[in-house]
Amino acid sequence: MQTGTLSAIWEENQFVLAASGRWDIASAERLGPMLRDRMPGRKGAPVCLDLSGLTALDTAGALLLDRLIKRLRGQGHVVAVVGARSDLCALLKDVQRAAAGAEPNSPAPAEKRPAFPLADRIGRATIGIWQDILSMLNFLGLVTVTAARLLRTPNRIRLKPLFFHLEQVGLNALPIVGLLSFLIGIVLAYQGADQLRRFGAEIYVVNLLGIGVLREIGILMTSIIVAGRSGSAFTAQIGTMKVNQEVDAMRTLGLDPVEMLVLPRMLALLIALPLIGFFANMVALAGGAVMAYAYLDINFGQFARQLQIAVSTTTLFVGLIKAPVFAVVIALVGCYEGLRVSGSAESVGLLTTRSVVVSIFLVIVLDAIFSILFSYIGI
User: Fold this and answer.
1) Which of 40, 73, 102 delimits the end of a domain?
2) CATH of the domain at 79
3) CB-based contact 338:356 (threshold 8 Å)
4) Number of domains in the chain
5) Is there a domain that residue 307 lies in?
6) Residue 46 belongs to what domain range?
7) pTM of the predicted model, to two decimals?
8) Relative to the CA of 146, which of 8, 29, 43, 277 has its CA 20 to 30 Å away?
9) Out of 13-17, 138-142, 169-173, which region has the weakest mean confidence (pLDDT)?
10) Closest to 204 (Cα-Cα) out of 195, 216, 213
11) Where are the alpha helices (DSSP H) in the chain?
12) φ/ψ (deg, to 5) at 221
């Protein structure tokens, strides 16, 4: 094994330093004195550093060469590096960049400040939102293609994860959804009664409660609760798998993460949310009926008769038809943000919060669009 050496000669009015052999950590201690002894005597003379004789170079050797070049240039010499192989040259440049970044006295590059900071922030935020929209649409297309491929081969549908997630997002969500829906029914009935009793129209509290809950409030509140409960859970679960490199392991084994992780959750929520929404509607009406009986002396028979007059099955279906759309949005956002986790626990927390915010925002926007659409077509 040829150890590293450094020779020095004068040639054609320039000082030639020829490095040869192995410049690695094993030769670093012996090369140190050579670097001090082989310095040119003439101040400002051009120096040619010939690396054609190098057979091996590691980080320690590259650092020695970098220090030699800096020392020569610091003494006023013009240094030309020649003859290095492409791989050794790349390593030397990497070490030079790393060393330049580690120097405490090296001036930091001046950051160009925008002339209008507010406009700059708004522009950057707009571009970021547009890129997020495009990325999510791309993810929606990927999920759609995967779902279509799965429908052609139904035997690939994984029933065990589907029923597991159906229990998590559906059955286990009933207590909290039921409690909040019952309280919302009480609040709506109380507030409506407080206003309508001034006109002696307390019975129309039933109309207000029935139309408001069945068309809008019931499914909207249910979707918001599910987005905060199940959507965040999707992001946290998939994000933790990304941190533990389980998603990468799936890809290595030839498994599709969209088929394995996204579709079972989306299909479970697609089945569960309409059922949870119907349950929430019934519980909210029950809460309103209790409030009407306690506060307005409207018994349950009167409440049921007036509710039958005020609403129809169309009113119920107008609300529930939104549920599959909201389910797809919540599952899509939750899984999308989970797959974006970069590999740290902090990223899991940030994207889980983002998942809840984006899901609730999109649910409310879509609900407004549905309301305008149904009003336009006269439903």
Assistant:
1) 102
2) 3.30.750.24
3) no
4) 2
5) yes
6) 5-102
7) 0.68
8) 277
9) 13-17
10) 195
11) 28-37, 59-74, 86-102, 117-152, 159-169, 174-196, 205-212, 218-226, 232-243, 246-252, 257, 263-296, 300-310, 313-320, 323-339, 345-377
12) -65, -40
